[in-house]
Amino acid sequence: MLVTGLSGAGKASILRTLEDLGFETVDNPPLNILEELVCDGLTPMAIGVDARSRGFQAAEVLAALQHLRARADIAASLVFATAEEAVLLRRFSETRRRHPLTPGGPLGSRVADGIAREAELLAPLAEAADVVIDTSELPLPELRRMIERRFRPTGPAGLDIAILSFGYPRGLPREADLVFDMRFLRNPHYDPVLRPQTGKDPGVAAYVEADDNFEPFWTRMTGLLEVLLPRYVAEGKKYLTIALGCTGGRHRSVLVAERLAAHLKAEGWRVDVIHRELAQAPGKAADADAAQAGREALAPSS
User: Fold this and answer.
1) Which of 156, 160, 267, 286 has the fewest CB atoms within 10 Å, i.e. the most exposed one?
2) If residue 131 lies in a helix (H) or strand (E), which one and from where to where?
3) Does Nucleotidyltransferase count among this protein's keywords (predicted)?
4) Where along the chain do its domains lie?
5) What tens digit of pLDDT does each residue of 3-12 get?
6) Per CATH, the architecture of 2-151 is what?
């Protein structure tokens, strides 16, 4: 596996996670020895490559990858880590490290120039990547879980499903393959008793499931997935992320994510559940929920 991406986007964290999974890892070797590093097809190997590598040329990396893929004993893939420019700028500011492609000058100067230059150099690799991982809104623990779920060397083949609950104020999850909007269901936020609870609590579950629209929706959603999931497997898809969103990401989406995970596990699917907003500090999550709920209340009815 070749791992590359923008500086500050998480390439080193991906390599460390792969090393913990049993991969032999090498970071930034000279490009002319890439094929020599892969001595056999038995040992899982992760090789980090980026613009700091000696003699870096995106075309040479792609050529080496093509040669590896031509070998019958090798299953080679390219993973690309990226993040939004504003996020990368913040990360470099927090660590007070110079971007590797930043021109000379005071520490932290012209970091944006380095980011732009690197993005230009790596653009062919981003376009050719088998997997692109955007870490802009991905905390390190979630990044590790994603890598473990996708690239663990052992385990049965098949479709790995991640079910992700989220709140719309922080935006759609970039890794989502399917997105379902739960905001049509009654909102527990307006009940002072239920507001501090989450979709994991029985009171919230009973409140949402009592909505007349819940069961018809549930029947249709699970029926749709019964059709889609086997087809994804037949097409060779290995990973699927189902995202469920609501106003604050703490009530309706969490409930449906938990219930859907239990349903799919009972059907024999491999499922992981991630609650994006529950990982936030409670105060921040509550503020976002309240702000969005206020906007919904003020919105004109159609």
Assistant:
1) 156
2) strand 131-134
3) no
4) 2-151, 160-297
5) 999 999 999 9
6) 3-Layer(aba) Sandwich (3.40)
